[in-house]
Every structure is written in C-alpha cells, then in structure tokens.
Backbone:
C-alpha cells in the first residue's frame, strides 16, 4: 500500500479524532442527562468532572470527585444509550491506572493557560493513536442554539505535561444554525483541509458542515470529509 500524502493523512486523522471525540462527548452527555433526572445525583456537589474509556464497543463513563475518586459509573452503548442506570460507587471508589491517567490528562487540559471564549469549558481526554501519550480537547460549553467553534484547543500530553497544543481559530467565532437549516458553513484559514473539531461539530449537530479553505471547499457529513466540487 502506498504511503499517504500529507493531505490524505490530515483528512484521515481529522475524521478519526473527530469521531472519537464525538463518541466520548456524547457518552458524557448521556450520563449527565440521566443524572439530571435523579434528584440526589443532580444535587451532588462532589461532582468534579467525567472521564471516559472505550470498552467493548461502548464508552465507560466515570464521574469523579476532587480527591479524585469514582463516585458514579455507567457504560454507554455505541448508539449513545445507557446500557444500565448510572450506578453510585461505594466510597472509596478507587480508580484504575487508566482512570488515574485520564484524570491527570483532563486536569492538565482544564488548567491549560490559553485565551478562552467564555467561562464554561469541558475537557475530554483519550489515549493518542499516534503516541504513547494522551490527546485532550478543551472545548467551550455550548449555549443553546450555539456552535462555539472558537476557543477550542487540542493538547498532546506526555508524562507530566503538555508537549504540544493548537487552537482552531483566531477569534471566538460561534455559529447559530437554525434548527431547520440543512447545514453549517465556515471559512477556515489555519489549515489546508477541515479539522477534527469541524468533524466533531458536524456530528454533534447532526448537520453537514461546509468548510471553505484557502484553496477550495469541503463538505463534512456523517463524519466523512469530501471535496466540494463545483459545476
């Protein structure tokens, strides 16, 4: 098999990382929504964040406190539904080696010093497919009807620190697509092709995303990136 060129490699990485980010973010959202329906869980002030782990085709979500210890656990199926109700963990909820590493990566992302777009952020971390370290995404928490493209970062974490980072915009741009719109559109000049964050938001919103770059335009749909060919 011939080696991929730089552009093809970038597209493959964007699709893979964007979809992985989406699956982990959707799993967290499913668990948080379920916890909101439970009065005790909704009022639990111990909650400090969530970590995730790909497991048997699904995503295991562990809710942690500031110790950090596990306080709730759940597994989300590939379709985004919970396999069983969210389970409260009897104290102390010891973390596995993987979970401890995930907490460290998430904490590094949340503490990362970079210009932010708003006060509310989430961080999602998972093992990097390109190294022995972790990849973490620092994402603005979206308000209703908003798609906050600006203010997102990807961090590469190895050992006890962030070894590389990148932003995806130079401003706090946020899209506001109509619920009835057939897609979203943005101009992106930091890369020659769309990125993992564009793939993520296309999947999250369930809409095609049209991304204009310096030398062309692309369409993202169902997690796949394809060139937009003119007539």
Residues:
């Amino acid at each position: 098999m011939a080696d991929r060129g730089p552009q093809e490699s970038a597209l493959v990485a964007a699709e893979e990382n964007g979809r992985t980010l989406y699956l982990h973010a959707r799993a967290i959202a499913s668990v948080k929504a379920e916890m909101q329906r439970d009065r005790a869980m909704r009022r639990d002030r111990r909650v400090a964040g969530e970590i995730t782990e790909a497991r048997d085709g699904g995503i295991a979500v562990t809710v942690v406190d500031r110790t950090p210890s596990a306080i709730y656990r759940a597994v989300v199926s590939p379709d985004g539904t919970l396999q069983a109700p969210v389970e409260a963990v009897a104290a102390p909820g010891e973390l596995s080696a993987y979970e401890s590493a995930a907490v460290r990566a998430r904490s590094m992302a949340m503490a990362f010093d970079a210009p932010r777009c708003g006060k509310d952020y989430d961080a999602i971390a998972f093992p990097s497919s390109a190294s022995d370290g972790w990849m973490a995404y620092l994402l603005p928490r979206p308000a209703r009807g908003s798609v906050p493209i600006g203010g997102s970062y990807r961090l590469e974490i190895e050992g006890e620190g962030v070894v590389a980072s990148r932003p995806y915009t130079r401003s706090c741009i946020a899209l506001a697509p109509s619920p009835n719109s057939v897609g979203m559109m943005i101009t992106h000049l930091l890369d020659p092709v769309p990125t993992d964050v564009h793939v993520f938001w296309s999947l999250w919103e369930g809409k095609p995303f049209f991304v204009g770059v310096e030398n062309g335009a692309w369409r993202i749909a169902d997690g796949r990136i394809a060139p937009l060919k003119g007539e």
Q: What stands out?
A: Residues 43 and 207 are 34 Å apart (CA to CA).
